[in-house]
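note to self: dont lose this again. the chain is below, predicted strucutre after it. 400 aa total, dont forget to put it in the shared folder this time
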Amino acid sequence: MALDTGATAWILASTALVMLMTPGVGFFYGGMVRRKNLISMIALSFIAFALASVQWVVAGYSLSFGPDIGGLIGGLDFLGLSGIGMDAGEGTYPPILFVMWQLVFATVALAILTSAVAERVKLSSFLVLGLLWTTLVYDPLAHWAWGGGWAMSLGALDFAGGTVVHISSGFGALALALVIGKRVGYGEHSFEPTSIPITLLGAGLLWFGWFGFNSGSALAADGLAANAFLVTNTAAAIGALTWLAASWIHGKPSSLGFVSGGIAGLVAITPAAGYVGVPASLAIGAVAGLLCYGCMLLRLRVGFDESLDAWAIHGMGGLWGALATGIFASTAINDYPGLLEGSTTQFVNNLLGAVAAVVWAFGVTFVIAWVIKQTMGLRVTEEEEYVGLDIAQHGERAIT
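---
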């Protein structure tokens, strides 16, 4: 087919927007850790970007989008991007651009996973963990949903990564935090965040980049992209407001809670953005704000140290979003009827796809983390944790 310069330009711009989300995660998380770990936390996101980028072009793209093998994984036909060209492909844009487009999704997923290891992971162990996680967790899930795997064949819908990115990283973070254990002194001492303004900056980058994340997934500069753009913002806005309201009932309305609700709304609308309209996005975002806030309270109640809340926001928000897609999908937006239009099939398909993603992400991440813990170790020493990872791991100080 002939090259569509409009579609190509839109995907290029959207890819650049999504790239900003990875440092956005770093700033969002970095502001919430203690001062002595600020550099370490931000650096983990940049390292995740570089590590996943190399893994993707070497093998990840082929494992995700190579010829289907049993519905589970892609073949190695595209190893090292062999055969991926610059001429227009079936989608009227260069296949090599689609590689880069999918690459930035993989990088942000690995960055979100760093929530589970805040202030206590060995950098060497994270490098091994990140390589194994992208290969054994992310790539199979991407193939299942987008690369011709069993979930795609079944008809499960994931417009922009609710299962592939958010369930994978959120429930992966839950497993990883269980294996690595609590930080020294967690629950006994107050762990004051370094800078809420830095976290707010990160949230702003995430919100901005998410427009590329969701509307760029239309892979064309068209009405579907425009709808995805609008419902993305709507879900984020109502999610922020509902979290704010809920937290206000329990105390003061914090700015951190407000932006956390916004991200919860963004996560939940991600799988649905190409299938629902504005009324549904209001419902999806509102439920996400309340649900993810409740999950955060549950984590605090049980004393679980996954304190940057990838599980509560990305894991549970992604799970709700996948189910909500099956409920609210509308033929007025796309060709898929949801539960509210009388189709139980779509809801069941999305339920199966989401549950499978939860089980795979949690189970495989747990095994990877356990093996690394038993071999090279996951954590820094207690002394290094006391000094802080900025000095212990990087030999740098953020604030003098």
